[in-house]
Design goal:
This protein is an alpha/beta fold. Helix content is 32%, strand content 15%. The chain has a single domain, classed as Arginase, Chain A. The chain has an 8-stranded parallel sheet with strand order 2-1-3-8-7-4-5-6, with helices on both faces. The longest helix has 23 residues. It starts with 44 loop residues before the first strand and ends with a helix. Bound molecules: 4-carbamimidamidobutanoic acid and zinc ion (2 copies). The site of one zinc ion has 7 residues, from loops. Pfam families: Arginase. InterPro entries: Agmatinase-rel (IPR005925), Ureohydrolase (IPR006035), Ureohydrolase_dom_sf (IPR023696), Ureohydrolase_Mn_BS (IPR020855). This is Agmatinase.
């Protein structure tokens, strides 16, 4: 049957389902009610779900993150006044669905995620991944670095995720950035964590983290630097290199993101995080992920809505950069 769904098409792009004609809560739940990948000729940005949580050390459930973020994204509208951009009119953004990855073999899943990401990048599209636990950042960085070389990574998280192993396992959600550094996927002069807080294993964790190529903006520094000071630190570190953004939703305070597996008190507000992300419109943003959304611990889509807005700001930043190029 021919698809007659009324959509908001503009700038030559196939846009969102028109919420003035089809109620927001009706119909299939693609991200922001955007078209599926197979419904367009060519995409500029592909949103890919990776429902995988076999790498977690505490509460499971991030495998349900992609579906929850999509379901929580139905209210996103087409014009972003904070950035004066209509992201879906500048870029053809599509939902690429979920990668079917092996929940019983982490190594097999890593290979499947890398292959899925590479398939997107080969088309020339940018990739925005919805996780999934943070383990998935490693295969995503492998695919990204194969295309762009060593990356400047800005990693928003309460946790360092540069630990070495758990129960003898090298590939977990606490270890992706150590593996990435060891594998030469990172530009060690240009990576930083933002939002780090909470108890560590030992003081040495921080020294090792520095050796792996990361600078840290601690969550408590928000009080002294403010949003603009944090942005300045971030942009100085990233420079004009290709930038990959990895956002663990637990960078937000549990009040703003209860639906996650390893919550830590004392985090950013959603408003602070969204403001920092807007500054990424001035960098060479080549890809991003949003991970660790675990809906079983969420309430009223608080975490899902935060993640949907995070995705929206990342796409807006990509759109502004594209319009300026
Ligand atoms: N990546 C996330 N969310 N958490 C890592 C926590 C690792 C630990 O249990 O020490
Ligand atoms: Zn975390
Ligand atoms: Zn993490």
């Amino acid at each position: 049957m021919r698809d007659t769904t009324p959509r908001l098409n503009s700038g030559g792009k196939i846009g969102q389902v028109d919420a003035t004609r089809v109620p927001r809560y009706a119909g299939a739940s693609t991200f922001a009610r955007l078209p599926r990948w197979d419904e367009v000729d060519a995409a500029d940005v592909v949103i890919l779900g990776v429902p995988f949580d076999t790498g977690v050390s505490y509460r499971p459930g991030a495998r349900f993150g992609p579906g929850h973020i999509r379901e929580s994204s139905r209210l996103l509208r087409g014009y972003n006044p904070a950035q004066n951009v209509q992201p879906f009119a500048v870029l053809q953004v599509v939902d690429g669905g979920d990668l079917a990855v092996n929940p019983f073999s982490i190594e097999e899943a890593l290979a499947e995620i890398e292959a899925g990401a590479s398939a997107v990048l080969e088309t020339g599209a940018k990739l925005l991944t919805l996780g999934g636990d943070h383990t998935i950042a490693l295969p995503l960085l492998r695919a990204m670095a194969a295309k762009h070389g060593p990356l400047a990574v800005v990693h928003f998280d309460a946790h360092l995720d540069t630990w070495d192993s758990y129960f003898g396992a090298d590939y977990t959600h606490g270890t992706p950035f150590r593996r990435a550094s060891e594998e030469g996927l990172l530009d060690k002069n240009a990576c930083l964590h933002v939002g780090i807080r909470g108890p560590l294993y030992t003081a040495d964790d921080l020294d090792q983290d520095g050796d792996l190529g990361f600078e840290i903006v601690h969550a408590t520094e928000m009080d002294s630097l403010g949003v603009s000071g944090v942005i300045e630190r971030m942009l100085r570190r990233l420079g004009d290199r290709p930038v990959y953004v990895s956002i663990d939703i637990d960078v937000l305070d549990p009040a703003f993101a209860p639906g996650t597996g390893t919550p830590e008190a004392g985090g950013f507000t959603s408003r602070e995080l969204l403001a920092i992300l807007r500054a990424l419109s001035s960098v060479n943003l080549v890809g991003a992920d949003i991970v660790e959304v675990a809906p079983a611990y969420d309430h009223a889509q608080i975490t899902g809505v935060a993640a949907a807005h995070v995705a929206y700001e990342l796409i807006s930043a990509m759109a502004i950069a594209q319009a300026a190029s």
